[in-house]
Amino acid sequence: MSLPIADTPHDEVQYTEFDDVPIASIRFNGVTIDKLVELFDPAFGALGAAIGAGAFVPTGPALAVYRGDPMSSFDLEVAFPVAEALAGETEAAGQTIRPSVISGGQCAVRSHVGSFDGLGDAWGTIVTAVQSSGKSLGEQWLEVYVTQPTPDTDPATLRTELIALLG
User: How far apart are CA 25 and CA 92, in angstroms?
Assistant: First the structure.
């Protein structure tokens, strides 16, 4: 089973589950939210270079995996899903790409359409919905960048799937 990405965006929080998903990942430990911008561009550039060199074939859009408390210090993986785990590490553009896995399970999912500046509020909607339902949040949060941002992309049209694993 792959990540729970709907064909069309959904504004409401939905509950579903998915199986483990192998990823090709660049990992950063002990990250704070103010450092994300400086990490994303070089990491996605390296992953793109590795794809171009045939190091792996993605099976879905780019994503970020946050492990830990996103409002404090957390571990971050910038990645692409792959059909099966990489055989080992590879280097591209000065970055080490490693095999990793997104642990599956029950999750809350919601789409965010618009600028990345609105992601915090969209995450807040998921947190509120989960807490109101009596469920508990886990320690793994995913952003799946369904729309690839380019210099010509209107930020209002960016679509990001937000997936919060439940505890």
Answer: 12
